[in-house]
Amino acid sequence: MSVMIGSVSERLAPDSDFMIWNATTNESTVDTVTRDMQRVKVAAAVTFMSGIFQLLLGLVQFGFVVTYLSEPLVRGYTTGAAIHVIVSQLKYTFGISPDRYSGPLSLIYTVLDVCYLLPTTNVGTLVVSIVTIVGLIIAKELNTCFMRKFPIPIPVELFAVIIATLVSWRFDLKTKYEIEVVGQIPSGLQPPVLPEFSLFASIIGDAFALSVVGYGIAISLGRTFALKYGYKVDSNQELIALGLSNSIGALFQCFAISCSMSRTMVQISTGGKTQVAGALSAVVMLIILLKIGELFEELPKAVLAAIILVNLHGMLKQFTDIPQLWRTNKVDMLVWVVTMILTVVLNPDLGLAASIAFSMLTVIFRTQLPKYSLLGQVPDTDIYRPVEDYNQVKEIPGLVIFRSSATLYYANAEMYVDALAERSGMDIAKLLSRKKKLEAKRLRKEKKEAKKAKKEAKKREKQVEETSEESDHEEKFEITMEENAHETDSDLPKAIILDLSPVNFLDTVGVKTLRNIQKDYGEAGVQVLLSCCQNCVVESLEKGDFFNEKVTKAILFSTVHDAVLYCQKTEDEDMEATHF
């Protein structure tokens, strides 16, 4: 969030716009006071507009987008965000000053810069960091051991801040060892000021992106702790809360808020789990700003960095999700790993958007490659299960019962047809081609017989004898063709039953696919029945003109067993295929 606001402020208020001529040094310098004032105005304006966007999105129930944040995605994202926070604290831990980077790969550049500057580490700062980290770890372990005896956890972070401030002030660590401290903390609150409306046209795109990213970060962390502590997060309420905070805070020259990984972990580790903790934090911050802020001016920044690093170890423990997900669901593991990598490489703002897009692709991928099964009957029951999964399940002779584990739509329609042909053992293209050849052969033979009958008729003197001979030839031909047809279709099933229970919607391509299946297999002499159709599927079939005079709703059955009983009832009859 800070990086996004900083980039907008630097773009709209660059140093080049605030150059002044210094007569003493005879060179141009930057008027930092005026520049910073303008950048504050830009930050307040973009914050105000992002708050308005969040309010509007909350009112139109935009919070539904949270349904696309799966648990593996959220945990992978928070792990990647934790890595960003850790890297951002390294400069305070080692007392170095790496360059500031923004955009994709900024974390990689920062790590390389930190490694390059390690030889210039401030030893005093590093010692303070190590002592604080070790002390916090020991104190937290003791806190865990005595948790049963002390119902209220000891606020070790608060003690660390107080002790470090006193030591830094007493031994003058800033002057003697060049240890960077917090420095001057401005006291008092800024009076409310309306944002500059003239800036809105230049920041509308950045404000919308900021509102979405801020919401995404807050809701992802909220869902993480909601899963951990067993409560529910109202996504639309969070949007409205963020919108009010940003729009009102902007009047006091605050910049956009979201959810801080580091501060949240510190609050959790000190036992804060309710809104009371947030209220107390706000009161303490107000007191510090108004009265006692100057008392913390000597606090080393290395101590704050150490507190953040220690409290982020819980987020890093989420790496143990990888082997567990590998055993349970490899696609979820891939979502976790890819989300973490994208967040690290592309930064949290772009990483979140890219992670959601990748997660959606995995959903499409799963529906494109569902499991196709032939169903058989459990003996003496009306239960039908996949034949390959159960040993006692038996196929119904003369029937093919086919089911897909996913819905039928444009992305998998072609594969559905191919799988049906493969599982049923019927190559519909070859069957139709052979049927056309037989039809052509029949027509040629009829033509030949007709010519022969005509010649014989001329030789006959009596019309009765000619008619008798023609009838004999035609009857002989019909018997021959029926025998050929019987021989051709003897291996085909009598009917195909499509179990559509997993199908929860049908698009136009899905309706067309079922129509083509009905037509093609019907022309091959195989009846196609539909079973277990949901109401929405039947409505889609009706709207797609699937039913007509030839194909009626009589092919619909509420269960697979009903369709099987219908086929068995008509087994001894000639089941004529439906033609379009």
Description of the molecule:
The chain has 580 residues and is an alpha/beta fold. It has 21 helices and eight strands. β3 and β4 form a beta hairpin. The longest helix is centred in the middle third of the chain and has 39 residues. The C terminus is likely disordered.
Distance between the termini: 61 Å
Strand content: 5-15%
- Rounded mean pLDDT is 84
Give the biggest beta sheet.
6 strands, mixed
Domain STAS: 389-567
Transmembrane segments: 42-69, 116-138, 150-171, 197-218, 239-263, 275-292, 336-365
Pfam families: STAS, Sulfate_transp
Membrane topology: Multi-pass membrane protein
Short précis:
This protein has three domains: 2-364, no CATH class; 371-424 and 492-580, Transcription Regulator spoIIAA, CATH 3.30.750.24; 427-490. Helices cover 62% and strands 6% of the residues.
Secondary structure layout plus pairing:
Elements: H1 2-12, E1 19-22, E2 27-30, H2 32-59, H3 71-94, H4 106-117, H5 123-145, H6 156-171, H7 173-177, H8 200-229, H9 235-249, H10 261-269, H11 275-292, H12 301-311, H13 313-316, H14 321-328, H15 330-368, E3 372-377, E4 384-386, E5 399-404, H16 413-424, H17 428-459, H18 463-489, E6 495-499, H19 508-523, E7 527-531, H20 535-543, E8 556-557, H21 560-569
Parallel strand pairs: 5-6, 6-7, 7-8
Antiparallel strand pairs: 1-2, 3-4, 3-5
Helix pairs in contact: 1-2, 1-8, 2-8, 2-9, 3-4, 3-8, 3-12, 3-15, 5-12, 8-9, 8-15, 10-12, 14-15, 17-18
